[in-house]
């Protein structure tokens, strides 16, 4: 019996190797989200979800992002986190260092 879902995400494969670099459009999306709010993972995940929900990047919502390999489902988290590290990893470390300096850690 069909589940009534009209969305097909056949092109999304969360099992893909998380060591692969993100596609260029995915990296652009990640940088866009990081510029909006330079947060660290997992806070950046929340920013990304909000940007997708409001279609603030190229008018893309969750469906368009899923076509490019970004889903916000738990099984896809390791790959998405790896793509974030690969895209803004050095900036995330800089943000962490700056935050530690401000709070005196």
Commentary on this structure:
- The protein is mostly helical.
- It is built from four helices and no strands.
- The N terminus and C terminus are likely disordered.
Helical segment tally? 4
- Large-scale geometry: globular
Judged by helices, strands and strand pairing, the structural class is: mainly alpha
The H/E string reads HHHH
Q: What is the first-to-last residue Cα distance?
A: 56 Å
What does the largest sheet look like? none
Strand tally, please? 0
Structure described in brief:
With 105 residues, the chain is mainly α.
Question: Which features does this protein show?
Answer:
single chain; 105 residues; mainly alpha; disordered N terminus; disordered C terminus
What's the structural blueprint in terms of helices and strands?
Elements: H1 24-36, H2 43-54, H3 62-67, H4 77-103
């Amino acid at each position: 019996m069909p589940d009534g879902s009209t969305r097909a995400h056949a092109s999304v494969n969360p099992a893909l190797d998380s060591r692969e670099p993100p596609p260029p459009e995915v990296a652009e999306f990640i940088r866009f989200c990081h510029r909006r709010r330079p947060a660290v993972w997992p806070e950046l995940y929340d920013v990304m979800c909000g940007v997708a929900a409001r279609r603030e990047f190229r008018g893309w919502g969750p469906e368009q992002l899923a076509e490019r390999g970004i889903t916000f489902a738990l099984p896809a988290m390791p790959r998405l986190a790896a793509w974030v590290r690969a895209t803004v990893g050095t900036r995330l470390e800089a943000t962490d260092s700056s935050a530690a300096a401000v709070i005196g850690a």
